[in-house]
Amino acid sequence: MPRLHMHVTDAAEAPLRVALHELRGRLEIPDHFPPTAQAEAESAARAPRIPAADGAVATEHTLEDATDLPLFTIDPPGSLDLDQAMFLSRRPAPRGSKAKGGYRVHYAIADAASFVTPGGALDAEAHHRVTTLYFPDERVPLHPYVLSEGAASLLPDRDRPAVLWQLDLDADGALTGTSVRRALVRSRAKLDYAGVQRILDDHTAEEPLALLREIGQLREKREAARGAISLNVPEQEIVEQDGCYTLEYRAPLPAYAWNAQISLLTGMAAAELMLASGTGILRTLPTAPDGSVARLRLTARALGVDWPHHTSYAALIRTLDPRRAPHAAFLQECTALLRGAGYTVFDGTAPPAAEALHAAVAAPYTHVTAPLRRLVDRYTSELCLAASAGAAPPDWVRTALPALPREMELGTQRANQVERACVDLVEAALLRDRVGEIFEALVVDVQEKDPTHGTVHLYDPAVIGTVETAPEGPALPLGHRIPVRLAEAEPGHHPVRFTPA
Predict the structure, then answer these.
(1) How far apart, in Å, are the Cα atoms of 446 and each of 162, 165, 306, 468?
(2) pLDDT for the residue numbered 3
(3) Regarding predicted confidence, which is higher, 145 or 304?
(4) At a CB cut-off of 8 Å and minimum separation 6, what does 118 contact?
(5) Pick from 314, 212, 198, 227: which is nearest to 257 by CA?
(6) Angle between helices 254-277 and 193-201 (to 10 degrees)
(7) Rounded distance between C-alpha atoms, residue 440 and residue 429, angstroms
């Protein structure tokens, strides 16, 4: 996922959209699918070829019918590439048992493998694209829209083939049982985060949705107990104010985090399935070196963030308020500890525990819940289906495994490049007519080798840019509020750059 979630309102000015179009050209982002891949997608949309357990091809008519489950989706408003749908329910305690009841999570994942033929033109294009790319004004999809926003998407009131997970939890939210199978499903409602938060807060939600808060909070407690890292990084949004455009930070809603806990739960269950079977691909992250944490402590002190010595890094960030500028700045700096994530493939022997760990999750974990937007998830779904059935993975999956880590690495690098370029462009576009003006800013980073260079976080608008003093000037005061003058801001040519005023 991108570190900053940015979008342009419908009213955003035309020059900004032109600049974003030019950016896609410079980065050589594809603007269409090859005709053969598009034709395959359109054919698959009409008649999906659903892989069967025996290696044959099934149809929607031969799938298990799970359309009686009243699933619902939760996504940003306007989203049509819907990868996941859920139904949450309570599990009563066994008769005669003194144990408490628990919960059952049904989680349906879009079945991309039913629409993409291994070795075909569409498959090749997906391996070229690797991920959906998000620009402020549009997205460049992994799969053609006829699939990603049509036949494969879990849109409401449409029958869809899906990979259906059943995850049983005890009363404390611990996973006690996992199964996964193919089924025909039908979502009943397309919800958005703000709407979900509103009805949860006013207690008008029916039980399947009300349980999102209950299960989400239980999973958050378990996450904190195992020392996992959960960054509540603010979203960056372009908004219109009196005919002008500016940036604001918006803290994610609690409903967003609770929804993410369901996805995280599934990714952890998938990792356990693959580790038990001996074949899989994990999302892994090494533990941050001590030096990085020590430097972050210095940043916290400079920003005025209270970090008691007895408090772990993971516990500290759960206490921060992203609506406060120093806390938001510190959360941005915390993302440095999440660098170095990759994918670990194994076939025949599970890796040692230390090599299977995702340090931020504090457990084995894999990507499995977004196959419409991320290449690797199509493969992890097939591996989990095979593991749950006690069968060998399909040959086309095993053949692709060795190359997937490098493919995903290159695709992630391109997504990060797009993100950085979009941030630079949008900030420069918003400030291009204000060169020479003075702004109040917080110094959030200072280069160790050259303390005259660093990064500032403006108080208004919500822009982060570089700042540099004269070559022989004083060191920048990390964590201090200073006035800065905008020196450069030219969309597509010069990102925002400041000098101390």
Answers:
(1) 49, 47, 20, 10
(2) 41
(3) 145
(4) 396, 400
(5) 212
(6) 110
(7) 19
In angstroms, what CA-CA distances link 379 with 184, 384, 399? 20, 9, 11
Within a 10 A sphere around the Cβ of 92, how many other Cβ atoms? 9
Cα distance between residue 454 and residue 302, in whole Å: 14
What gap in Å lies between CA 434 and CA 458, rounded to an integer?
A: 14
Say which residue the tokens 């993410």 belong to: 260
The pLDDT value given to residue 2: 36
Q: Which of 263, 61, 256, 80 lies closest to 154 in space, CA to CA?
A: 80
pLDDT tens for 149-179 read: 999 999 999 999 999 999 999 999 999 999 9
Strands (E), 52-158: 57-58, 71-75, 84-91, 102-110, 133-134, 139-140
Whether the predicted pLDDT of 322 surpasses 70: yes
Over the range 49-65, which residues count as b (16 or more CB within 10 Å of their CB) and which as e?
bbbeeeeeebeeeebee
Spell 358-395 as b/e; 16+ CB within 10 A means b. Answer: bbbbbbbbbbbbbbbbbbbbbbbbbbbbbbbeeeebbe
pTM, rounded to two decimals? 0.89
Helix (H/G/I), strand (E/B), else coil: 51 = strand
Strands 464-468, 453-458: pairing kind: antiparallel
Q: DSSP strand E in 233-315: where? A: 235-241, 244-250, 279-284
**pLDDT at res. 401:** 97
Tokens 């449409």 map to which residue?
158
Judge contact between 261 and 223, C-beta under 8 A. yes
In tens, the pLDDT along 256-278 reads: 999 999 999 999 999 999 999 99
What type of residue sits at position 482? Answer: I
User: How would residue 467 be classed by pLDDT, with cut points 50, 70 and 90?
Assistant: very high
Angle between helices 193-201 and 207-225 (to 10 degrees): 100
* Contact call for residues 160 and 152 (beta carbons, < 8 A): yes
